[in-house]
Each structure stands twice: as C-alpha cells, then as structure tokens.
UniProtKB/TrEMBL annotation:
<feature type="active site" description="Proton donor/acceptor">
    <location>
        <position position="256"/>
    </location>
</feature>
<feature type="active site" description="Proton acceptor">
    <location>
        <position position="363"/>
    </location>
</feature>
<keyword id="KW-0269">Exonuclease</keyword>
<dbReference type="GO" id="GO:0003906">
    <property type="term" value="F:DNA-(apurinic or apyrimidinic site) endonuclease activity"/>
</dbReference>
<keyword id="KW-0464">Manganese</keyword>
<feature type="site" description="Transition state stabilizer">
    <location>
        <position position="258"/>
    </location>
</feature>
<dbReference type="GO" id="GO:0003677">
    <property type="term" value="F:DNA binding"/>
</dbReference>
<keyword id="KW-0255">Endonuclease</keyword>
<keyword id="KW-0862">Zinc</keyword>
<dbReference type="GO" id="GO:0006310">
    <property type="term" value="P:DNA recombination"/>
</dbReference>
<keyword id="KW-0238">DNA-binding</keyword>
<dbReference type="InterPro" id="IPR020847">
    <property type="entry name" value="AP_endonuclease_F1_BS"/>
</dbReference>
<feature type="binding site">
    <location>
        <position position="107"/>
    </location>
    <ligand>
        <name>Mg(2+)</name>
    </ligand>
</feature>
<protein>
    <recommendedName>
        <fullName>DNA-(apurinic or apyrimidinic site) endonuclease</fullName>
        <ecNumber>3.1.-.-</ecNumber>
    </recommendedName>
</protein>
<feature type="binding site">
    <location>
        <position position="362"/>
    </location>
    <ligand>
        <name>Mg(2+)</name>
    </ligand>
</feature>
<keyword id="KW-0963">Cytoplasm</keyword>
<keyword id="KW-0227">DNA damage</keyword>
Amino acid sequence: MKTEGLESPPHVCPTLWRHAQERLRKCARGRPGLADFVFGFLLAPTWGAGLKALQLAVSMLRVVSWNINGIRSPVQGVGYEEPSNCTAMAMGRILDKLDADIVCLQETKVTRDVLTEPLAIIEGCNSYFSFSRNRSGYSGVATFCKDSATPVAAEEGLSGLFATQNGDVGCYGNMDDFTQEELRALDSEGRALLTQHKICTWEGKEKTLTLINVYCPHADPGKPERLAFKMRFYRLLQIRAEALLAAGSHVIILGDLNTAHRPIDHWDAVNLECFEEDPGRKWMDDLLSNLGCQAGSHTGPFIDSYRYFHPKQKGAFTCWSTVSGARHLNYGSRLDYVLGDRTLVMDTFQASFLLPEVMGSDHCPVGAVLSVSSVPAKQCPPLCTRFLPEFAGTQLKILRFLVRLEQDPVFRQSALQLSNQTPVQMRQNKARVRSTRSRPSQAGSSRGQKNLMSYFQPSSSRPQASPNLELPSLGTLVTPKTSEEDVMASVVEGRAKASEAKNEKEVRTSFWKSLLGGPLPMPLCGGHREPCVMRTVKKPGPNLGRHFYMCARPQGPPTDPSSRCSFFLWSRPN
C-alpha cells in the first residue's frame, strides 16, 4: 500500500501522520502486510481506530531465529557486497540485516574459552550464551536482545542445574522421571537458553513472555542412542514450557527442532518409510494444536505460527543439503519453527515468515511479529556476557599472583652503597675483580700446542723406489690374442645389456607419464551427458573411503529434468 501523497485523516494530526508514515515504512521491512494493515486502521473514520493503529505501529515486537552453523565463521550473503574478515563487524551486520528486537541463534559452535569480546558484546544489544561443556566447536545457542528489549531474567539450560538463583527464570515443573546425571547430560551440550521479558499489549496490560531458544539434537540413524537422547530432550523441553505456562507466563519456543512435522514440510515425505510414525513427529503432534482438524480433536498447548498464517504453503523449507546443492532447487525441509502458546498466537501474532534469501548457513532465518511492546529491564540479568569476568575487567591477571618479598636489611644497605658509587669507584671494583680471577696454569703450556705444519711430512720422508725392484718385460705387457668366438659373444652380450637398459628406461618413462599426466577425464552422466563429480563414501562399512562418480547437478525432485540424474559409477572396480 502506497502512503505517499495521502492526506492525513481528520482525526489524526498532520505531523503525527508524517511521523507514522516514516515509522511504518521502517517497521514494515520484512514484515508482510504490516503497512497495509496499520494504514487501513489509520484511514478509519474514528479517532479511536486511528489511535489504536498508531499504538500498534509503535509497539511491534519482532523475533527472529536462525541456525547460523558457526558464529565465528565469516558470514556471507547478508546483503553486503564488500568482504569482511572481522567477525565483530560481520555479527553486527547480521543483526542489522535481520532487523529484529530479539535474535536467537543456534549451532554457534563456540565455547567460553574461544568467545571474544567483539563477538559477544555488540553495541546497542545485550547477549546471552549457552556453551557445550563436552565438546569444542559443537552445538551452542545465543540470544541477542536490543537494549529496548532487555530481559528481566535469563537462564542457561532446561533443568535448572546451571541456575545461579540470581536472575533466573525458574518454574521447572516435575522432573522426577529424570536422574541428575541424565539432566546434566541433556543440558551439557548447550542446547537451550531462556530469556524472560516484560511486554505490554496495546490495551496497556503488562504481561510476562518467556522465550526458549533451543537447538534440538539430531537423531543419527546409525546411532540409536542419539534418538533416545533426542526424545528425552523433547520431553524435558515440554515439561519446562508447560510449567512456565502454568505459572502465568506466555511462552515462545523457537529454534531448530530438527524434525519436519508434516509431509508438506519435507521434500520427499512420500518416499520415507513410516513418516508419520517417527517419534519426533508424534511428539510434535502432542505438543501442537492442529487447527485444520475438526472439533473434538487433540488440542495442544502450542501453535505452529507459520502454519497458522500459511496452512497450505508448499515449498516452505528452512534447511537444505549444502553438499548436493539442494537449495538451488528448494529441495529441503522445514526444521526451524516459532511456536507460541495458543492465546499468544491468536491474540498478538501479526505475521510469521521465512527469510530464504538470507545466505550464510544451511538454514535460513525464521521469525514472527507480535503486536506488543517490550518493557526493558533497568539492568541486564547476571547471565549477560558483559558481566563475564573476562569481559567486565574483573578477571584475575598473572601479576595478582606475584607477591613482593621483604628485603633483608643487610642486602638493602649493600644495594644502597652500590647505587651511591661514583663511576671511578665502579671501574676500580671491576679491576679488582678481574685481578682476583684465577689464571690458567703456565705449566700446562710447557707441552706446547702443535703447529699446523707439524702435520705435514717433509719430502725426504716419502718412500723411495727400491733399486732392486724388477720391472716387467715388454713382452708380458702385450695383450694376448682373442679368438673370433669370444669377440662375437661379447658383442651379443653388449647388445642384450643395451636392450635391457632401453626397456627399463621406457618403463620408467611410461610410469612417470601416467603419474604426472594429470587426472583422468570425468565420465559423463547418463541423464545429461555432462561431466560428473567425484564423491567419497563416508558411511561406515565395506566401502568406506572409496570414490565414486555421480551427476554434478543439484539435487531436486525426480520429476524435474534440471535436477540430478541417477547416474552412479565406482571410480575403481573391486
């Protein structure tokens, strides 16, 4: 909706109208239909409708979630052409590009020992990190909040084992089904981070909103224990979220859930065995309300916000395989969600969106817009990174461990005397020290050092020829005559040796030519007659490490002729 040139309604001040236009154009970036929605209210004929619309325009809360696949790596494709090798600048640009009040990141792949201050502390934001305690460069989540959306509480983990009892969120629910070791294992991978905010609705009511930033485990088909770990994590997440709801807080679960819920959320669901029977999908069925079902069906406490606004949108994927280039043909799945409790979604959610145009990861950002305003806390919770000792300037340094020793009075007096000496006295002291040094014994020099010439013998010492030495006669030096057969044999032998040397040289030459001649040309795929690409088997088994050829085109639907064909060829026979 174009608002330029429109006169202000009679119930709205012209100056206020111009400010509203500027504010809405800025707020509507990446927020589908927001400008049309608000200006439709502004053009209403009553003052009450215009006032509500202006309040709505100013009080939008935008939240975004993104599996960034490594926060320290240089992120490309965030809308800036110039390259940047500065991680801090890249992080600031990411936040500016996402343009959200709260940004939740997953798979940060950093631990506390490698987290740098420029990355953790961004101007205008306060950040919170949860690290993996078991492995370096693995998992991890982070939440960046604008200063206008500073949380009142923040907590790492779902179980409460890492809570400090100061500025924590609380409300843990009944966790009797878990042992302490199991809870610690579930929270030690840095997969959950909670921030609690105060929000105000357009009616002026103040409420509590808790955001649960999660990076749920991936179930490796070859590791059944990871599937059990994933389902226990799901169970713990649901217990904590329902406990927060029971305590009167609104709850948003956002992040990478690592499960495609419905067949519409997966590119190849029809070819997957027992798609609906997957334990992760059954858990989501229990957690979410299916708004498309008839009355009397199961009603979960949460709503998938994207399907609430786009129930039949196909191809709405958030994750693609980077190895196969599947993103080019949108051959992926929807693993990232913004889930809100039923009341919150129905009353305050204005939009839910995907941002597939944002590159830099194998996932794309997802988000939602709420018609509420954030009431910032006066002070950040203790979990904020700016309070970490290494960033707050309170970390102990090595000089703190060095203690000055009390000097002995005699030593202090002698040092004072030495410092008061004149240059002449100091030279005299040095001369006395040199004179008292022990000198090498003169007796040892009586042996004398050998001269270089002593190693050379005079010419008279050379052995002379004996006068009685008999020289051989001339007749004995004459070469004896050789027979014709011996000559022919020597010629044949010489030719054989030359032939062998030539053959050996040819073998060596052919070997080096085959070795240095470069790789063999790639075979052509059967579907497109184009050069293939070589891959390596990484799955454990008898073929581990073997190379094979396959079509170089990106993966896509089998019915798409521009996608990868089914060509396969081993690079070497068994």
